[in-house]
């Protein structure tokens, strides 16, 4: 019989599971807190749970803790890039970035990706499988343990303490490998567990999900009553250019995608944002900036410009700093709120999917 993936069970389901084992419900609460607040690394760590029950759990459940098999630390800004091995031997990347306002974590949602964006390394080897909620949480928890560790705590600070609050990650972005809305159900369970008051209890407002634009899923997400931010990878000012860069544009036309964002914003009352990878000679002219501003101006969403991080498999080039600044200025003049994303960890395998790719091809 397959073992129960206990780390993927939301609070209510865990309580049901535990009462089904003829344990009291308060034991379920303790167990959830051990897994999702103290971030215990095994049932053995859970000292206030009866030993016989811990043995039963070990027997019946899988409890795979993600450990980094590679860790790169930027000398420039302290950005940490982790490569984690999953229970089946697959590998995923996640990143920790330090900002003035706190620590921000970027996680992967799938092993590989099937979206095929032309400039992205994550998609070059195709898609292998979805990540479970436990595997998405596992990336966050492993990084959180690392933060405690390098900040000098031997284990999790006591729950509810100032230290716990001050050392907890402050932002999460689902912008690593994979298309999160292509792993919809697991993504939602993951978000609900990460923001559960019995767990790490992140605020939904501190979570951003980035999508290449799966229109039906954007509509579905709008109805979930979540306070998260949605970011759209737009990357082009019109349908023709978008199709050159993103195969998904053949399925969902650019105006339908932008309309889906409009309706997401209207339904949820949450701001949306746009990502735009600047590729020299492809989407970075003054005319592109003008056309882009006309497409999205009424949405008042923030635009993040990301000078493309060149990958050796393609000959896309990043524009010069001046060209990026000029594009920004042009958008601003057209009334768009825009920043050039600060490039973090320039000296490590920065672009999505590069670290994993280097390992699977070595
Ligand atoms: N599938 C989701 C999330 C993953 S990618 C999405 O498409 O939004 C996170 C962001 O990084 C996306 O905007 C993606 O297009 C961008 N990206 C991927 N590779 C890049 C590269 N080499 N240079 C610049 N941006 C890149």
What does this structure look like?
By secondary structure, the protein is an alpha/beta fold. The protein folds into two domains: about 5-60, DNA polymerase, domain 1, CATH 1.10.150; about 70-360, Aldolase class I (TIM Barrel, Alpha-Beta Barrel), CATH 3.20.20.70. It is about 35% helix and about 20% strand. The protein has helices at about 10-20, 25-35, 50-60, 135-150, 160-165, 185-195, 215-220, 240-245, 255-270, 285-295, 320-335, 355-360; strands at about 5, 60, 70-75, 80-85, 90-100, 100-105, 110, 125-130, 170-175, 205-210, 230-235, 270-280, 300-305, 340. Strands 3-4-5-6-9-10-11-12-13-14 form a ten-stranded mixed β-sheet, sandwiched between helices. A two-stranded parallel ribbon has the order 1-2. Helix 11 (about 320-335) links the parallel strand 13 and strand 14 (about 340). Helix 7 packs parallel to helix 9. The mean pLDDT is about 95. S-adenosyl-L-homocysteine (SAH) binds near residues 117, 175 and 233.
Offer a quick outline of the entry:
The protein has 362 residues and is an alpha/beta fold. The protein is built from twelve helices and 14 strands.
The tally of strands reads 14
Give the SSE order as H and E letters. EHHHEEEEEEEHHEHEHEHHEHEHEH
CATH class of the largest domain: Alpha Beta
The proportion of strand residues reads 15-25%
Strand order of the largest sheet: 3-4-5-6-9-10-11-12-13-14
Amount of helix? 25-40%
List unreliable stretches of 5+ residues.
none
Largest sheet: 10 strands, mixed
Question: What is the chains' assembly state?
Answer: single chain
> In the CATH classification, which architecture of the largest domain applies?
Alpha-Beta Barrel
Straight-line N-to-C gap: 35 Å
CATH homologous superfamily designation of the largest domain: Aldolase class I
**What is the total domain count?**
2
Helix/strand/pairing category: alpha/beta
């Amino acid at each position: 019989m397959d073992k129960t993936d206990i780390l993927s069970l939301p609070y209510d389901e865990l309580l049901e599971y535990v009462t089904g084992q003829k344990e009291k419900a308060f034991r379920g609460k303790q167990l959830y807190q051990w897994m999702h607040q103290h971030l215990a690394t095994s049932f053995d760590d859970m000292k206030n749970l009866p030993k016989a029950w811990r043995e039963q759990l070990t027997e019946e459940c899988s409890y795979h803790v993600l450990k980094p098999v590679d860790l790169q630390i930027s000398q420039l800004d302290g950005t940490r890039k982790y490569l984690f091995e999953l229970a089946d031997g697959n590998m995923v990347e996640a990143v920790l970035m330090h900002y003035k306002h706190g620590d921000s974590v970027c996680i992967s949602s799938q092993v590989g990706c099937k979206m095929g964006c032309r400039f992205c390394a994550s998609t070059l080897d195709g898609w292998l499988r979805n990540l479970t909620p436990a595997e998405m949480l596992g990336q966050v928890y492993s990084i959180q343990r690392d933060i405690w560790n390098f900040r000098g705590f031997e284990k999790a600070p006591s729950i509810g303490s100032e230290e716990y609050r001050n050392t907890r990650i402050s932002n999460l972005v689902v912008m690593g490998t994979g298309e999160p809305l292509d792993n919809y159900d697991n993504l939602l369970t993951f978000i609900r567990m990460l923001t559960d008051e019995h767990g790490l209890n992140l605020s939904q407002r501190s979570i951003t999900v980035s999508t290449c634009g799966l229109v039906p899923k954007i509509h579905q997400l709008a109805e979930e009553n979540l306070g998260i931010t949605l970011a759209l990878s737009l990357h082009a000012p019109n349908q023709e250019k978008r199709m050159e860069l993103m195969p998904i544009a053949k399925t969902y036309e650019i105006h339908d995608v932008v309309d889906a964002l409009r309706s997401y914003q209207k339904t949820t009352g949450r701001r949306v944002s746009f990502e735009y990878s600047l590729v020299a000679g492809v989407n970075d002219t003054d005319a592109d900036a003008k056309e882009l501003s006309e497409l999205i101006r009424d949405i008042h969403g923030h635009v993040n410009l990301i000078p493309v991080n060149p990958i050796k498999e393609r000959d896309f080039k990043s524009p010069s700093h001046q060209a990026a600044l000029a594009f920004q200025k042009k958008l601003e003049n057209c009334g768009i709120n825009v920043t050039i994303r600060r490039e973090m960890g320039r000296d490590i395998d920065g672009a999505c999917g590069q670290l994993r790719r280097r390992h699977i091809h070595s």
